[in-house]
Design goal:
Two copies of one chain form a homodimer. By secondary structure, chain A is mainly α. Helix content of chain A is 58%, strand content 4%. The structure holds a DNA duplex (30 and 30 nucleotides).
DNA sequence: TTTGTATCCTACTAATCCGATAGGATAATA
DNA sequence: TATTATCCTATCGGATTAGTAGGATACAAA
């Protein structure tokens, strides 16, 4: 069970965009630099965020990206789905061969885990993450100041 | 994010063993049949359960497998670890490059998900699963009776 | 208008992982 | 002795994935 890198990078990227959405927007190449991701690879990640309508490029090429919508309404699950279509820990969750008919305790158990994970992903909004991130950064600045 | 089949099959197999541990034990080939898993493939799964000390083959070849220990003390996480060494949704959880130093909100978030999943896995014991399974089977029998 | 630069879009590749099969050794039972 | 179940290792095809590459497009500054 592993999270793919696109989801990881994607969340980091959209947090950075969300943190600067009030201003002019963020350039892709700047994200690549601060997040230390190959700009070419970020190409694909940005593209997926855009096609999921999570970000917009407001004024042409050099205007930078902004969040498309209220950060309090965009959850981590929304971001997750932009890169994973949906969460299915085990295949038989999609067809109705099991789980729905509740054939065995094991599958019920994995179904429960699936729901559990989705609930967690839905519980955090981009607004929450932005707040946490700025707290972290303030802390870092403080430490830097004392050193 | 996917669960591998060994973990899926493994849990189903150990539930079946746990359900018959009081009696004579369960033969591998019988598990293969009832769970509809290739017996050759089950070879590997049983081997991993054994090397994790979760099951034992008490009296030689034809005696069948039994649970090694109290089903109330064996959690789903224990079974999971027999097939996955440990849960690390993202790589940097293992090295201390992040998460411990709390560099970014995204990684804290994934850490949290990781813990969340482990908590869920630890919350269910084999005893719970056995009870659920027998309830399901009783229900099925009842339905069969009325048909 | 030209040049540079950022985004956009598609294809590709190398590597890794994974599910499953195969073959044969070992040991217990009949 | 013959059979059968477990044990053990090797292998293979396929799928996925992280990341690279190349070039098209479009905008802005010179």
């Amino acid at each position: 069970m592993k999270l793919n890198t696109k989801t990881r990078y994607g969340l980091r990227a959209i947090i950075e965009i969300a943190m600067n959405s009030s201003e002019h927007g963020v350039l892709q190449k700047d994200i690549a630099q601060t997040q230390n991701i190959s700009n070419k690879y970020l190409d694909q990640i940005i593209a997926e965020l855009k096609s999921a309508d999570l970000i917009v490029n407001t004024g042409g090429k050099k205007s930078g990206y902004k969040l498309n919508g209220d950060p309090k309404k965009i959850t981590a699950y929304t971001v997750f789905k932009a890169f994973n279509s949906s969460l299915q820990l085990i295949d038989c969750l999609s067809n109705n061969e099991c789980c729905k008919t509740k054939l065995c305790a094991a599958q019920q158990f994995w179904c429960g885990l699936n729901d559990h994970i989705i609930t967690y992903l839905q519980s955090k909004t981009l607004h929450d993450l932005v707040q946490e991130q700025s707290k972290i950064q303030k802390n870092n600045d403080l430490v830097m100041f004392y050193i």
